[in-house]
Prior knowledge:
By secondary structure, the protein is an alpha/beta fold. It folds into 3 domains: 39-395, TIM Barrel (Alpha-Beta Barrel); 403-604, 3-Layer(aba) Sandwich (Rossmann fold); 653-795, Sandwich (Immunoglobulin-like), CATH 2.60.40.10. The protein has 21 helices and 28 strands. The protein has an 8-stranded parallel sheet. Beta-D-glucopyranose binds at residues 93, 128, 177, 230, 274, 309-310, 521.
Amino acid sequence: MALPLLAACQRGAVPMATTAPLTEARTAEIAPPTFSPRVQQLLAQMTLEEKIGQMTQLNISAINHTGTNGDVSLDSAKAAGLVRDFHIGSFINGEAVPAVQWLRYSAALQRIALRESRLHIPMIYGIDHMHGASYVGGTAIFPHNINLGASFNPALARQAARATILESADLGHHWVFAPVLDLGLNTYWPRFYETFGEDPLVAATLGTAFTVELQTNTEISPYKVAACGKHFLGYSDPRNGWDRTNALIPDQRLQEFFRPSFQSAIDSGLKSIMINSGEINGEPVHASKAILTDLLRRQMGFKGVAVTDWEDINRLVRVQKVAPNEKEATWMAIDAGVDMAMTPYTTSFCRIVKELVQEGRLTQARIDLSAGRILQMKDEIGLFENPMPRADRLSRIGDPALRAQAVAAARESMVLLKNERNALPLAPARVKRLLVVGPSADSRANLCGGWTLAWQGRPEDAYPKDVPTLLEALRREYPQAKIEMLPYRDATGKMLLPSISAAAKQADAVVLALGERPYTEGLGNTSDLTLPVDQQQLAQAAQASGKPTVLIVIGGRPNIIRSVAEGSSAIIWAGLPGYGGATALAEIISGKTNPSGKLPFTYPQFAGHITNYHHDNNENSLDLSDFGAGYESPGAKYKSSMLTEFGEGLSYTTYAYSGLALSDSVLTGPAAKLRATVRVANTGSRAGQEAVLWFLTDEIGRIARPVRMLKHFEKQAFAAGQSQQLTFDIDPLHDLSYPDGQGRPQLETGWYTLRVGSQMARFRYVALPVASATPAAGKATGAVRPASDQSRTVTAAASH
Ligand code: BGC
């Protein structure tokens, strides 16, 4: 029976919830490894040194001619020496060079590995293809993950993964260091853009879609590729916002927010994880047995390879100072659960691990475990059968169809934050003259950010000329109009604001392409998110003309734009949309593309106050009446620190949500199911796509619960006037529970609020009395004592 909407929940009008804590976590002893016969045979024949060599990963600079990272040339003598003397089993990295150069390099390196290794074990090559095959020349550069998050469309994450391997697997790139499964919670963090945003479900859904496509695509057959989920875990919320610094994360929060994206990918077969270079609660993750063994292996059931991040064993000594020397650090890391060390410059790891075994501090069995996991990964991706790259499918690289997909992904990844009096679209028929200004107006690098062609991006002239800049894309989009770009500084750096104001007065509208230059990791650390002063002045000069201004925020994290937001007619958050970014932006400005992105994070309004949409009840409101009589001041009651909320985004059409109905008003026991349906209609005059986001609130929790959490989403295309009924099947254990610090699901008796679009409904969850408790198939087993008994417990063998 469908129930009508229930009244809005008023403070104080909510029935008290009672908590039924679940008592068993999903913990198990680590299952003994099930290595393939090949791996078992190899382990039986290998020397200790050979096994340690498998656990060692060196950077390209150790085997190329110049000793620098970007040089994809092979010094055969160096490579042969390292494989012969140290049995090195893995190499990494490089930068974008033409496919044929990669092919030559990989083939020669693999030949050396097979020849010099006594048991002919192939090396595995790891590479940072982060948004497309970004370290191969001429490939499709997709939007970064933060943009894919804005699309709320897992199909785009799959396409990005597919393009990545179609354009690199044949070149001997066996191990892709993606996806980033961290949560974009702290907007200062210089790797914010590498995440799918702040929501665990979005990160889990898109990250898993990426992982599955990368690891199971058969078009690259006979090859297979291993994904690497990174950076396990809690890397993305450093207290001071800087890269690789301490995060303070309570266990409960670690379980509820940071675990799900990794858990989902692991449950779908993720073959490797890379470890967080920072610290959690003061403990470096590389030295944390609690995280790398108890959580990752015991609770989460991960069976694959755990690789360190860059030089991180060494950093335990040099930077984090938790070990007096490299030997202690190496012991700590391996004891904690590291399988492979990205050393990445030295072989001292090989010597030290051998000494630790000889001294009895590490057992042979421990070494076998890690070497076995690495060999198993090599075996599972077919490296023993197909170790060599191939040259007969190079025409796949640079395929225009993949570029077209990158453009399509960029179209869905932009978010229209403001559109005052329908300033956009600027229909070509109405535009005679457009002024385009700002640091990103004629830039390809700024649209792509870090990890494009090279670690920190490359100088502007290194990007392909057939990738349009915004200026070029606008000229294409408005062939009849004069599209003018003016510099806003002269050669001495002096601002040219009067000429900008004057030109703005002559134009029909001004496009302000603002934002950031490429960066990643520590080189992107910032102490102020505020839009740089010169860009604020530029925007204000344009706005002073009185002409419509379209402000476009380009960059890896949201600049604080409060001072120029008010005066802007329209604002588009463009993030880092990649090679298709300019085309997508020009089409959105002209109206050819109807924007459909929604923010995958909370856009902060103030540099000094960052919050996330799933904050606790007391975190983002200022109710002055709490201070007593005389302090109430109507306007200040709710002072939001958000410029725009998670999940918001405008369109050129309008959607109406109606008729939210629930199949029942009460869910009894963890096996019960509830179906929610809602009608969504495109009430405007043009087609569009709408991401439908379903949020749940646990109204009263035993611990402070988020004001709402996204529990389900889907994106649908709507023709003008079309309406569709959409469904969300609510499963109590999955959707209503939250984990405690040990990962045990807590399912609370009480009221829940469901929200979708403008609609809201409430329902109750009631635990089963002891006598009638029935186990949910494969999910929960448990019993609950009668409702009057406050010590009620449910035993759950469930996964969270
Ligand atoms: C980054 C990783 C990357 C690795 C290899 C590290 O500095 O944190 O994300 O995969 O380098 O380049």
